[in-house]
Amino acid sequence: xxxxxxxxxxxxxxxxxxxxxxxxFFKAIGVFFFRVFKVFDSKLTIMIVPHSQSKVINFQxxxxxxxxxxxxLVGIVASFFYFNRHAVLSSIEISSxxxxxxxxxxxxxxxxxxxxxxxxxxxxxxxxxxQSLALLGLDKNSNVNQSSINNGDLSSLFTSRDSVNGSVRExxxxxxxxxxxxxxxxxxxQIGKMLDNQSSLFREIPxxxxxxxxxxxxxxxxGPTIHAITGQWYIHKGIDFSTWRSGDPIMATANGQVVTVGxxxxxxxxIIIRHKHGMYTRYAHMSATRAKKGEFVNQGQVIGYIGNTxxxxxxxxxxxVHIGSDVVDPGKYINVKLSR
Length: 340
Known about the structure:
ten-stranded antiparallel β-sheet, two-stranded antiparallel sheet
């Protein structure tokens, strides 16, 4: 019982001390705020004395209002500098974006020009491919049906492209071009297969230049002309190739067998090669021959050298193509466009 009373006294004392501490603390806070309020509530008189004899201006305020005004003024000035700096940075960023936009527009214009050039080239490719397919007889045998061609046909692209604007138009053009090129792959592959199958035939027909020197040119074409020595009209039965000098190599224009290696007062040193399909080629005025009679030669193989033997006025190669007993224009086989 005595211990219980003792504990109650201790508890009461602790509670009294805590209560007293809180009261003292809140009183101190109250005194602090009262003093602060008293300081801020202190009256101030501000006088403005002009240099002239005008009336003196004075007004009363307190410390709180003055401090509030100063804080507000500092806030306004700080805000001004902050937003002004932000506006300058925004202006710089906008200027940079405008420059980038101009560069992008310039690049876009360049891309559109290149796109137009690409479409024009593709249109020419389409015409050339169609013509080649017609000449080779592949236009009907091709598995590319008419509807698929129309889907990727560049003619429809060129007629409809004006109705589309902006980047959508360019995208539409590229899609149409892609579709057409995809459809063109198969006929081109067929052409390649046909050429591969016919490569042996091309090697058996005299269809290359007999001289490949960089300075080679045609000094006399096939057909009627005036003889350089006699001054009389005659039929020139071949094509003359010249490099302005002797010793440059002469090549067989097709696979075949050498049937003649000889000398003639008119042709000088000459070689005749027999090819398949009843074709012969003659190479005359050679300085020296390299092939032998009875030898089988390949297209592009060197058989002799340009010379000045026989009836000539300068070093050159006289080249003829015969089909049976007929002499034909070699230019039809070597695809040379002759000009008078």
